[in-house]
Amino acid sequence: MSESAEGRIRLGISSCLLGNRVRYDGGHKLDTYLRDVLGTYVDYVAVCPEVEVGLPIPREALRLVARPDGEVRLVFSRSGGDITEPMRDWARRRVAELEQEQLDGFIFKAKSPSSGMERVKLYDGSGMPRKQGVGLFAGIFMEHFPLLPVEEDGRLNDAGLRENFIASIFTLQRLRHSLAQQPGLGTLVAFHSRHKLLLLSRSPQLYRELGRLVATAASAPFEDAFARYRVLLLKALKTRPTVKKHINVLQHILGYFKQYLSADEKQEALELIEQYRAGLVPLIVPVTLLNHFVRKYDNAYLRQQVYLQPHPRELKLLNHV
Fold first, then answer.
1. Which residues contact 80 (CB under 8 A, 6 or more apart)?
2. Which residue numbers delimit the DUF1722 domain (predicted)?
3. At 64, phi and psi to the nearest 5?
4. If 0-12 CB within 10 Å is exposed, 13-18 middle and 19+ buried, where does residue 135 land?
5. How far apart are CA 307 and CA 195, in angstroms?
6. Domain count within the chain
């Protein structure tokens, strides 16, 4: 993965997660993994809705309140001052500006009344909270970019969610970067060829749809074909892989070596796949053996498959799924 400016991921993020002191109490919520580990590969676009809308630091805390008619308002928790409309107006302008950033995804601050993507406290008329709210900015962002990969810091503690999100943003970065270097159908075909098995691990149905689209793309203007491809790709990336789908891909890869493997090599591979199915070893174990076979038997098609290394090894993401 290139670490040049052109080859880096473009990721929106809640500013406090980078250690910026923008929270209502003048503090931050630094996530060292996001800043120091994932940040090695990412150019972040930091956003703090409350500061950018014009509120001071420190400031009175905000909360989401549901009116009797069901409308959700953003209000100050003590004074009750309502800033819903200023926040909505700012958020709509901000998401339009973010279109120019060519983002590959966004990481929100969990539980925030402006930036939480789910389960934010939503208070009723009696002052009782339910974890059913969506932060005002986060909701407008997700409505504006409905298929873009998004997560929040709390959910990223789940190993499966973290791996899927990071695989998705690396995939979108590769697509964006390759087409920026050499736009055209040939580049899209090459990208699709490299990502076939990754797509199969997400959604066999969308894998087939994307294959048909690429096969007939020459009959339409490239811009139209690319727009349809990107929508289907984003839908596929939003579909989480499962153990069953991973096993399907692992067995598919193993099939490429049936005429080369000794009986012992084949048995070892099948045993490791079964151990992965049973939860005894993580995905990295059978993948490492298959990568060994790719190198030993020099399979050109599999050597280019992103599935076998969807993100830098240093992130160790396949060690935990």
1. none
2. 196-312
3. -90, 130
4. buried
5. 7
6. 2
Q: Residue 122 in contact with residue 171, Cβ under 8 Å?
A: no
Among 115-129, 134-148, 195-209, whose mean pLDDT is lowest? 115-129
Give yes or no: residues 203 and 281 share one domain: yes
Q: Is 50 helix (H, G, I), strand (E, B) or coil?
A: helix
Residue 35 carries which DSSP code? I
The token pair at 42 is 């990412």
Distance CA 3, CA 38 (A): 12
* pLDDT tens column, 38-67: 999 999 999 999 999 999 999 999 999 999
Q: What is the DSSP letter of 36?
A: I
End-to-end CA distance of the chain: 22
Are 104 and 140 contained in the same domain? yes
Question: 180: which 2 tokens?
Answer: 């920026």
Closest Cα to residue 230, out of 165, 160, 161, 178?
178
- Which helix (H) or strand (E) segment holds residue 75: the answer is strand 72-76
Q: Environment class of residue 184 by beta-carbon count within 10 Å: exposed (0-12), middle (13-18) or buried (19+)?
A: exposed
Q: pLDDT at position 7, please?
A: 82
Residue that terminates a domain, selected from 128, 157, 186: 157
The separation between CA 272 and the C-alpha centre of its own chain, rounded to angstroms, equals 28
Provide DSSP, 176-187.
Answer: HHHHHHS-SHHH
Q: What is the DSSP string of 179-215?
A: HHHS-SHHHHHHHHHHHHHHHHHH-HHHHHHHHHHHH
Residue 83's nearest CA partner among 108, 57, 52 is 52
Q: Count Cβ atoms below 10 Å from residue 178 Cβ, excluding itself.
A: 16
Domain end call among 157, 172, 199: 157
Range of the structural domain that residue 103 is part of: 5-157
3-state SS assignment for residue 132 = strand
